[in-house]
Design brief:
Blueprint: E1 2-10, H1 16-26, E2 31-37, E3 43-49, H2 50-57, E4 68-77, E5 80-88, H3 100-115, E6 116-124, H4 139-148, E7 154-159, H5 166-176, E8 182-184, H6 193-203
Parallel strand pairs: 1-5, 1-6, 6-7, 7-8
Antiparallel strand pairs: 2-3, 2-4, 4-5
Helix pairs in contact: 1-2
The structure holds guanosine-5'-diphosphate (GDP) and magnesium ion (MG).
Guanosine-5'-diphosphate binds at residues 12-18, 58-60, 64-65, 91, 159-160, 162-163, 186-188.
InterPro entries: GTP-bd, P-loop_NTPase
Domain G: 57-148
GO molecular function: GTP binding
């Protein structure tokens, strides 16, 4: 088990990448050093400003992220600091993706879940009731929850709480996952970030 790793997983387009970028900024990063690791082993490092990262790494179309993005952050805890490696991953889908590149990235994501101490499972609260869209609550979310909830470092992030329809979505999520810790957040407006930070600090 990798002690200081915190992985963000969930379906495609739920807001994982935007969350990672804005959360890193919230923790004090001005320049992001992003290490991209591809399923075939290729890796490279790039530096981004927060604005650049948002433009280049997030997208309203699905599967913008086809590899792992690793970002080192330091979280102040009292007078000390904790180092955490935040890992953004390729979005999951229901069934089998037609593109091999994405299938490989998805299995790369799943392997990570096995090893990471902290698993932040992101669900798009605004799409919980929208059956059949790529980012709606689906079978794969129940599978993640079943697999990961045995761990103390597992939490569900109910994202896009800035949207109207998310309120009902959050209530539905609470009913579906009564035993899990659910943190309502808005990756876009940096809401709920203190709760996420506290959860991460408690578990590293
Ligand atoms: N309104 C709203 N939109 C969001 C939020 N988080 C992400 N998005 C949008 O959702 C889309 C997918 O975001 P992205 O981070 O690329 O999703 P990923 O595929 O899970 O990494 C983008 O158009 C984002 O701007 C949020 O908290 N509120
Ligand atoms: Mg992404």
């Amino acid at each position: 088990m990798k002690e200081n790793e915190c992985v963000i997983i969930g379906k495609t387009n739920v807001g994982k990448t935007l969350f990672v970028i804005n959360f890193a900024e919230y923790l004090g990063c001005k320049i992001l050093k992003v290490e991209s690791v591809y399923p075939d082993g290729r890796q490279f490092e790039r530096l981004f400003s927060i604005k650049e990262a948002t433009l280049k790494l997030t997208d309203s179309n699905p599967h913008k992220t086809k590899c792992l993005h690793k970002i080192n952050v330091t979280i102040p805890v009292g007078k000390k600091k904790k180092k955490v490696l935040i890992i953004d991953s390729c979005g999951l889908i229901e069934g089998i993706h037609p593109e091999e590149e994405i299938r490989k990235a998805i299995s790369q994501t799943l392997a990570l879940v096995r090893d990471s101490k902290i698993i932040l499972h992101m669900i798009d609260a605004s799409a919980v009731e929208k059956k059949g869209t790529l980012n709606s609550l689906g079978e794969v979310d129940y599978q993640i929850a079943q697999f990961a909830q045995l761990r103390s470092g597992y939490a569900i992030l109910a994202n896009k709480m800035d949207l109207l329809e998310s309120k009902n979505g959050l209530n539905k999520l609470k009913g579906e996952f009564p035993a899990n810790y659910i943190i309502p957040i808005s990756a876009l407006y940096k809401r709920g970030f203190k709760e996420v930070k506290d959860f991460v600090v408690r578990n590293v």
